[in-house]
Amino acid sequence: MPPRPLAAGFEIGEDPGVAIVPPSKRPHLVIVGAGFGGLYAARALRRAEVRVTVIDRSNHHLFQPLLYQVATAVLNTGDIAAPIRAVLRSGNVAVILSEARSIDLERKRVICSHGEVAFDLLIVATGASHSYFGHDEWAGDAPGLKTLEDALRIRRRVLLAYELAEREADLPARRDWLTFVIVGGGPTGVELAGALAEIARHALARDFRNIDPTEARVILLEGQDRLLTAWPPELSDHARRSLERLGVQVRTGAMVTAVDGRGVGIGEERISARTVLWAAGVEASPLAKSLGAPLDRAGRVKVTPELTVPGREDVFVVGDLASLEIEGHPVPGLAGAAIQEGRHAARNVLRSARGQPLLPFRYRDRGAFAVIGRGAAVGVAFRRFRIHGFLAWVAWLLIHLLFLIGFRNRLSVLINWAYSFLTLRRHARLITGLPFGGEPRGPS
Amino acid sequence: MPPRPLAAGFEIGEDPGVAIVPPSKRPHLVIVGAGFGGLYAARALRRAEVRVTVIDRSNHHLFQPLLYQVATAVLNTGDIAAPIRAVLRSGNVAVILSEARSIDLERKRVICSHGEVAFDLLIVATGASHSYFGHDEWAGDAPGLKTLEDALRIRRRVLLAYELAEREADLPARRDWLTFVIVGGGPTGVELAGALAEIARHALARDFRNIDPTEARVILLEGQDRLLTAWPPELSDHARRSLERLGVQVRTGAMVTAVDGRGVGIGEERISARTVLWAAGVEASPLAKSLGAPLDRAGRVKVTPELTVPGREDVFVVGDLASLEIEGHPVPGLAGAAIQEGRHAARNVLRSARGQPLLPFRYRDRGAFAVIGRGAAVGVAFRRFRIHGFLAWVAWLLIHLLFLIGFRNRLSVLINWAYSFLTLRRHARLITGLPFGGEPRGPS
Fold it and tell me: Which residues of A touch B206 (CB under 8 A)?
């Protein structure tokens, strides 16, 4: 790929490899989104000869793989989140708390909720969320899990369901409060189902007088014919058996066709449940649309092998917002992939600023795991090793501790895990944000 | 005081001291509120021959003396709260999540948001909150600190103020974002002011590019002529000097006459500030009114020396909701006093059930402390020893660790304190609950 002229607004020295460029003349890189892709790109560039501005609508980076543990009262919010400012404190990175609404590629500006930010180079990393498959009206009755607020909302609903069941004299109504439906059998759905079953069987078992929490039903619905479709079928079987051992009812081939505050419909059939959680589908951040590039079915930007928007060498897309196939294999929507893409985009940003040809991204598949419960997980490591059970669980723990940002968070997570593992209790069983105290209107 | 006949609905054996009463015949004690007073009463009775039901509108007991540390991002919500059910798991105590709306003394029922609960004996312990002195319309612009939600709201406002200052190009507007006013110079106000000054000077000092957090102004307003009026004047002086050393502007004799989203008025004078926090006044829970007993100016129930509502030996009031003078000294609104009252009411509940005369409450004043900052506190121990500085601070730490409920919370608080003390950082710097991402409308 031939070197291309630099974008207007900055210059660099004769030999870009060694010249010291005065800060004010350095190209301005804007990174939208401080998830794994954006944050690791910024970290890779904090000593480089670019000025970096990170824009995020939240003040914290979130370690999303552990978000379901906040939702299920194992961890505190503070354990899996770190202030973006604190993480990027040293170096040449500015952080702006604002929501990017759209991108004007022609004028090279990010249009934010607070105003416009001009860029020379851009990395878009605003990720993806779950998808209600065109039924956004289900969102209120079946919340998904993407932000800390989502996790606290789910925690509130789950804990409140037991409280309201305890108060409820009518037996069928009580049963509905004690029925938990999770839609979507991917990693998040599997992890939520396992954790909810453990809450019922262990954490809450002795805490109530009128109800028996171990009678709670946890039902996991998956539209396709097996759980964890991104993994090999044998691991799907393991996951299913492990969940069933915990008491989860797993139903595959179950397409949800209706959701309301009293349950879900699967075609003609109806499951009564006061708590429905959504863990299905993928829908890219709407920012993708303003990039004027081809999108895939989930709304993700089909990027070039160099991770750029087709036709631009100054605009990169990484993480869950990017859609890329390498040798026929799609790069998966995992934290590890986003980190690698973020770092690669950082490298290409510098090459672009120096007029050097961009390099194609190579994905190193180190593996992926899903936890089912205490001492049980399934996963594939390095594309080849399929592991399950206790070994997979230990591997999962170590990998997640390793990638958590900050010593403080690692220590705190480790303590909370040890506490849950040894006592079977849940430390973070707090309902916050009740609308009117213990109002009997049900969870919101 | 002569023994009185038992309330209808329960009987006890011939010799109430030793007889085993079948559980269904045991008198039913209802405790409203699981703060210090209610929780310690319930704990004292969990093996006694009464059936106990605890009603609270929240699912957690809150360790209020450390709430300001959640608001100022030192501690997580989970560190200072424990699920009431988990604390009262063993024994004969049922817990109901519901809001008590009023009390029908004639029919012996607590009217809750979810229905009615009948009682034979009652302990009311719903506490008190701050008071806007008839200006409840100030609550939105000057939030107080009483619940976990309050603490998260204050944390959000404070952290967001720095974020919005960073984005603000206009210098006077930026200055307003960096001005923090605290109304009320009691322990909560003093502790908040000290903590906010430390955030500005240490925790955030190096994290911004456009603003210098050390330029933030923290202004503490007190209507009377000194801070901490419940303490001896020499400790007020110490507190003031310690705060001023941290950079806090302390203004005594400053009566706030106006509050809005842009600042406060003190008579003719105006202080522009985008963050105003309220820590003044005392207003008892409105439940007091339905007890038909004489109330003091703050709306607290004037209880008998036995902690009962005058004229009743089956209805007790403890903690901040009770107003009691012993030998001319009012029992203070402190956690320690509430705990002692709760335990004493538990004792008298049993005596009432057995038809024995009730005993008057004696308050053991073990002391009270207020923290000003890292290594600085003031306090009085055992009515006689006035201490300040590092020694008082260590005493404060130890006392609070000792009274925190649960080993898990103690460990977590200890780690967070050690972290803050050693690194000067704030672990829990998370903004949650932003209305629309980083919307520039300002905090809500």
Answer: 89
- State ipTM: 0.82
A60: its two tokens: 């914290």
Which of A106, A301, A220 is closest to A228 using CA atoms? A220
The DSSP 8-state label assigned to residue A357 in this structure reads P
> Taking CB atoms and an 8 Å limit, are A81 and B152 in contact across chains?
no
A190/A211 Cα distance (integer angstroms):
26
Q: What is the pTM of this model?
A: 0.86
For residues A101 and A333, the answer to whether their CB atoms sit within 8 Å is: no
**Tokens 């105006």 sit on residue:** B270
Among B214, B137, B138, B218, residue whose Cα is nearest residue B185? B218
Q: What tokens were used for A199?
A: 């809450």
Instruction: Round the average pLDDT of chain A to a whole number and report it.
Output: 87
Residue type, A55: I
The kind and range of the H/E element at B420 are helix B407-423
Q: What is the DSSP string of A24-36?
A: GGS-EEEEE--SH
Per-residue CA distances from A303 to A176, A298, A362, A364 (Å): 46, 14, 13, 18
Best of B32, B414, B427 to disrupt the A interface (most A CBs within 10 Å) is B427
DSSP3 helix / strand / coil % (chain B, rounded to 5): 35, 25, 45
> Confidence class of residue B206 from pLDDT cuts 50, 70 and 90?
confident
The pLDDT tens digits of the residues spanning B388-431 come to 888 888 888 888 887 777 766 787 777 777 777 777 677 677 77
For B295: left if phi > 0, alpha if psi spans -120 to 50, otherwise beta; the answer is beta
Rg of chain B in Å (alpha carbons): 23
As a whole number of angstroms, the distance between CA A184 and CA A177 comes to 20
Whether B438 and A76 lie within 8 Å, measured CB to CB: no
Which residues pair with residue B121 across a beta bridge? B29
AA identity, residue A359: L
DSSP per residue over A251-271, as a string?
Answer: ESS----EEETTEEEETTEEE
User: Residue with structure tokens 């003719």?
Assistant: B268
Is A222 a known active-site residue?
no
Strands laid side by side in the B269-272 sheet: B258-260, B263-266, B269-272
- Residues near A159 by Cβ (< 8 Å), separated by ≥ 6? A73, A429, A430, A431, B59
Q: Nearest CA to B166 among B199, B212, B215, B218? A: B212
Q: Which residue in chain A has the smallest CA separation from B92? A: A209
Measure CB to CB from residue B113 to each of A210, A431, A437 and give the nearest one: A437
C-alpha pair distances (Å), A60 with each of A146, B15, B322: 13, 63, 43
Helices (H), B168-304: 171-177, 187-198, 233-245
Place of tokens 């180190």: A366
Q: Interior CA angle at B238 toward B235 and B243, to 5°?
A: 125
CB atoms A78 and B76 under 8 Å = yes
Residue range A184-243, pLDDT digits in tens? 999 999 999 999 999 999 888 888 989 999 999 999 999 999 999 988 899 999 999 999
Instruction: Please report the beta strands in A37-190, taking only residues with DSSP state E, as ranges in sequence order.
Output: 51-56, 60-62, 81-83, 93-97, 100-104, 109-112, 115-118, 121-124, 128-129, 179-183
CA–CA distance, B435 with B444 (Å, rounded to integer): 8
Residue of A nearest to B97 (CA): A438
Which residues of chain A does B146 touch, with a Cβ-Cβ cutoff of 8 Å? none
Please say whether the dihedral angle defined by the alpha carbons of residues A370, A374, A376 and A380, taken in this order, is positive or negative.
positive
